[in-house]
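BUG: 3D viewer hangs when loading the predicted structure for this chain

Environment: internal workstation, default settings.
Expected: structure renders.
Actual: progress bar stalls at 90%.

Input used:
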Amino acid sequence: MNRSSISRKKVLYILHGIQIGGVEVALVSAIPRLNREFDLQVIALGKINDRITASLTPDEKSRLHAFDYPLYQYPFAVFGIISFVFKFNPDIMICSLWRASMIGIIVKSFQRKIQFFSFIHSAGFTHILNRVFSSMAVKIADHVLVDSKATADFVKSKIRPRAPIQIVSFCLEAQNINQELRELDPKEIRIMFLGRINPVKNLPKTIDAIHYLRSKGHNVSLDIYGKPEGTEQGLVEYIYQKGLVDQVHFKGELYHSQSKVMNDYHFLIQLSSREGMAMSVAEAMQNGLVCIVTPVGEIPNYSQDMQNAIFIDIQNQENWIPSLTKVEQVIRDPILYSSLSKASRKQFENVKIYSESLIEQLNAI
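Structure tokens produced before the viewer hung:
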């Protein structure tokens, strides 16, 4: 019996766009399995980056639909988007991020029978529109999905949904337990950053950390992977001021094979002021990198200072240098580094991957 003769649930997933980002990359990783198990359609309220979807089959790509309009045109564009949704007539509608929530709210108000999943990815609101539409969506949703315990706690305390909250795993790949962990060579320490080049990531502070470690005689280098979001030129100038032009490099965006790239590094550094799940940190830990991080968002729920990660205090200046001396301690001791690396990977043993975790929630209704 072929799949067209089987009655399958119609699933519609709406998100802002398909660009480089944790939410978007996670969805693309799950599309093959979602497409096998459901009658799937995906609405992107923005551009679809062909490089991110390059691994999908033609049939899987045909499930993607871009509605790329600037925000000021939404009062007019929304009718076309809603018309598409009504024509598809989904059984399940998943809305990620605030613009998708806005569409979901309108659709749910007309089609009560649709099972509405509101998907929240941050333990905080970034602006007023995010607050308004995300809160409204959570309050009327039949199901609330979150990316972490930290986000679940935030939603529970600040929005108080009527629907149950379920955590979806954001591990994208099954762990390779046979992968050989990289040994530390104190003569050449390779550090990477992977994420948005955005003020919330505090990259100038990361540059300060590299400058400090080099001033103490450690041969460290930093490669920055990520999409520029308007602050790259200032970082370039800051790197020049610190005399680190030869040690800090911008590597652009990573579209695929993040795990393969991670194998070339000893540490991942991410000194964010705010995080949700922090997918790049979780993926780095899966691959045995020792992560130099601020304990924000979900990070302290899956890592422990000097057990499987190194916590850095960027808020209290008195604790800044003592935090960095912990990094020095690990650099000087390959045995300690190996212990943290092994514990880092062990933290994510037997964790479900994103597609399995999401489909489990969809099949539970």
